[in-house]
Write a structure and sequence with these properties.
The chain is an alpha/beta fold and about 500 residues long. It is built from eleven helices and 17 strands. Strand 16 and strand 17 form a beta hairpin.
Length: about 500
């Protein structure tokens, strides 16, 4: 017991010393003579939780907005994750040589020492199930499946040779979103809100919108991992109540609820003062955020009030769960200061084992569902002056093989197996070089032959555009510093403006 009391006393002494230092700095920076001093302290920030910037300065509000350590290019991110991994060979990676090999046996050299999810024996090659044309002033290739995307293709920078070492959906989704194929690491949205906080006290800093279904990796892809749980994504629904259990119970007025929350917060504050547990701050913030969200979330999630021209541009379906609705909501979110908006659209797993998974049916439906709203999102952000301060990221968890999937040795409808050696992603918005193309694959789209980039490279680039150096942005856990990019990652300078 004496030891515990001693630790508590040491914690209180540390807090008192810091508060005295903080007040001194604050007093100094209030006058003109303190401007230089304030800048000096800010320049010393390294982006690690060891600095006051990420710890004690947030003792009252864990989601308080913070400046980026370095000059950022964007304020917000909208990440469009196509769950199931869309085929790059039917969208952006034009391979006329692959068409010549259609339905011919796959060369054995392409199968040696390769791991596949479902391919057995020797499959046949599968030519592109789409036609391609050059579009825009840049003349970049795009398939006929994306007629609306052609209108905004000059805004986009392509990464044609992304690679991953994961070929199953769950681990690959985790790697893409958390930097690790195993559960327990913070998602990229959690890292961003931890580092920058939220610009709107009435809305979460990290919002998740889903359509079609839930990612294979579950809610872990927007979890906070070992970061305080206040930084995890808040899953909002485009159908029904935006957030479950947000409404007041019957017979409970908002005034009564406010008094209850004030009493609970007072108890939690006393607990934090006594033990210094950061999860207590999370608890306080979540109660208060839920109260504020009762008014703000239903308003921002209401797309019915949008002009008819905007709703038509996106192709929204009010009252239904739809990717188009989520794209419009994403614009509304960043417009209101939400830091990170994650959209998951399920249904891109095109194996060909059923019509819904076939490249000539289910895949076409997914293209039609997403093409128009994605183009509308970029055009809408641009016309509102928001595109230059917003980063748009599009991609899946891996790519698709140039071979026809022959599950159980049977060649079904046109479909492709999982492929991690090379696939396409793209970015648009602030800090991105418009119309750029980085990387290339071989003549059949099987492997990257130049400009290969990893999942960690993409994460490093996103953090860079937000004003972080990915190697310095760390969090101490279990005796060592962790970061989103683990021990890898390089900024993709070739696509930066």
């Amino acid at each position: 017991m004496d030891r515990i009391e001693k630790l508590i006393a040491e914690q209180r002494l540390t807090e008192a010393q810091f508060n005295s230092r903080r007040h001194f700095i604050k007093d100094c920076t209030l006058g003109l003579g303190g401007l230089a001093l304030g800048g000096l302290f800010n320049s010393c920030s390294t982006g690690t939780p060891k600095t006051p910037r990420y710890t004690l300065d947030r003792s009252l509000n864990p989601m308080a907005a913070l400046p980026a350590p370095f000059l950022p290019k964007v304020k917000s991110v909208i990440y469009l994750h196509m769950v199931g991994a869309p085929s790059q060979l039917e969208l952006f990676d034009y391979k006329p040589e692959l068409a010549k090999l259609h339905n011919k046996p796959c060369p054995p050299s392409l199968l040696d020492e390769k791991k596949f999810a479902f391919i057995q024996g020797v499959p046949n090659m599968l030519g592109p199930q789409a036609t391609f044309n050059r579009a825009g002033a840049t003349g970049n290739w795009v398939s006929n499946h994306l007629p609306h995307f052609k209108k905004i293709i000059d805004e986009v920078a392509f990464l044609k040779a992304v690679h991953t070492d994961q070929f199953n959906h769950g681990p690959a989704q985790l790697l893409m979103q958390t930097g690790s194929p195993r559960v327990g690491r913070p998602s990229i949205g959690s890292w961003v809100t931890y580092g920058l906080g939220s610009e709107n006290n009435n809305l979460p800093g990290f919002v998740v919108l889903t359509s079609g279904g839930t990612p294979d990796a579950g809610k872990s892809v927007w979890g906070s991992g070992f970061l305080p749980s206040v930084y995890q994504g808040v899953h909002c629904r485009s159908k029904g109540d935006p957030v479950l259990y947000l409404k007041d119970p019957k017979g409970v007025s908002r005034g009564l609820k406010k008094k209850v929350l004030e009493s609970i917060s007072e108890i939690n504050c006393q607990e934090y003062q006594k033990f210094g547990d950061p999860e207590v701050l999370t608890r306080i913030n979540q109660y208060e955020m839920a109260y504020r969200m009762q008014v703000s979330v239903p308003e921002v999630m209401d797309i019915d009030k949008e002009p008819d021209t905007i709703k038509e541009m996106y192709g929204v379906k009010p009252g239904k769960e739809a990717f188009a609705n989520n794209c419009l909501l994403a614009r509304k979110m960043v417009e209101q200061g939400v830091r990170f908006v994650q959209l998951y659209d399920w249904g891109w797993d095109s194996h060909g084992a059923s019509p819904g998974e076939a490249l000539d049916s289910g895949f076409l439906r997914k293209c039609k569902e997403t093409d128009r709203p994605i183009a509308a999102l970029i055009l809408d952000l641009k016309q509102r002056g928001l595109l230059e301060e917003t980063l748009i990221v599009w991609g899946g968890e891996f790519g698709r093989t140039p071979m026809w999937e022959n599950r159980l040795g049977i060649q079904n409808s046109p479909g492709r197996d999982h492929q991690g050696d090379a696939f396409t992603m793209w970015m648009a918005g602030g800090g991105i070089k418009k119309g750029a193309v980085h990387g290339a694959t071989d003549e059949i789209g099987y492997s990257g032959i130049e400009g290969r980039v990893s999942v960690h490279d993409i994460q490093a680039t996103i953090l860079h555009l937000l004003g972080f150096h990915h190697e310095e942005f760390t969090y101490d856990f279990q005796g060592r510093p962790f970061r989103l990019t683990d021990v890898a990652g390089n900024i993709i300078n070739e696509i930066l403006a």
